[in-house]
TrEMBL record:
<comment type="pathway">
    <text>Purine metabolism; GMP biosynthesis; GMP from XMP (L-Gln route): step 1/1.</text>
</comment>
<feature type="domain" description="GMPS ATP-PPase">
    <location>
        <begin position="2"/>
        <end position="194"/>
    </location>
</feature>
<dbReference type="GO" id="GO:0003922">
    <property type="term" value="F:GMP synthase (glutamine-hydrolyzing) activity"/>
</dbReference>
<keyword id="KW-0547">Nucleotide-binding</keyword>
<feature type="binding site">
    <location>
        <begin position="29"/>
        <end position="35"/>
    </location>
    <ligand>
        <name>ATP</name>
    </ligand>
</feature>
<keyword id="KW-0436">Ligase</keyword>
<keyword id="KW-0332">GMP biosynthesis</keyword>
<keyword id="KW-0067">ATP-binding</keyword>
<protein>
    <recommendedName>
        <fullName>GMP synthase [glutamine-hydrolyzing]</fullName>
        <ecNumber>6.3.5.2</ecNumber>
    </recommendedName>
</protein>
<comment type="subunit">
    <text>Homodimer.</text>
</comment>
<comment type="function">
    <text>Catalyzes the synthesis of GMP from XMP.</text>
</comment>
<keyword id="KW-0658">Purine biosynthesis</keyword>
<keyword id="KW-0315">Glutamine amidotransferase</keyword>
Amino acid sequence: DWNMPDYVQEAVEKIREQVGSDEVILGLSGGVDSSVAAALIHKAIGDQLTCVFVDHGLLRLNEAQQVMDTFAGHFGVKVIHVDASEQFMGKLEGVTDPEAKRKIIGREFVEVFQAEAAKLKNARWLAQGTIYPDVIESAASKTGKAVAIKSHHNVGGLPDTLNLKLLEPLRELFKDEVRKLGVALGLPPAMVYRHPFPGPGLGVRILGEVKAEYADLLRRADAIFIDELRNTIDHNSGKSWYDLTSQAFAVFLPVKSVGVMGDGRTYDYVVALRAVQTTDFMTADWAELPYSLLKKVSSRIINEVRGINRVTYDVSSKPPATIEWE
Ligand code: XMP
């Protein structure tokens, strides 16, 4: 039961005290944690903060634009937008193994971030949106307990090479507290209450080899799904289906199937829709979305995204399936 304005004020003062007149770099991903950390640190030290936003080309539709509009536009934060999509696509060419893809994306991400950070000669601090559960998780993994099955990417290891001190103002907070803090700092609630999105992004939602053409189709199908989830209200709870699910997204299947459109035969790709409900993401149930919602999403995707002629719904729970398909 902490009081939010007091908390913000205390956190701001603590950051000012810690950092003094030094400059700080932060890797902004558009996710909740790095966004809230950026907003808080910016409130504390303004232009002493520079954010680096690495766009790996595997983000959702209009995501880079939204991040730039919110931070650079609305808040006036200094953000360096690095469009590295071609570089990432190049490295991923011919790679089909999920863990190999994760490693490449993670390594490339660190490399691009590091190159940008190295240009900021006056920076003394690296800020990260580490939250309390991350602290526990990494402590648990050091004692050998099995935690995450899949390798998660973040900018770990950077302080060593860049010689920066770590600034982690969210270290003591749980996720729901981070969200409340984000809203108190003026971040859009839709951003703060977003479903989680994996670091490797669409890279693990395009099965097998990642291609720009596939990413483009997937982005558009995914945006339609999310749009309809946000706009469909469940009358019993008064909540949108977006808020009633913990994570929802489209997956690109690089197989072609036959369809008809008008007088013609089509031979196009398939997308699977995935929506789950979970509290801890360790187990999850597939969401019983209304048929009318599925029908609308399917018909919109097939009509609006030329190149996709079939939509399926994933009815697998975790375990034994995982939430992501890779
Ligand atoms: P799975 O697929 O293992 O996913 O059931 C559990 C949660 O973890 C997310 N996830 C990732 N997050 N990097 C991330 O940052 C990754 O490589 C990664 N793989 C899975 C997934 O989106 C879900 O929320």
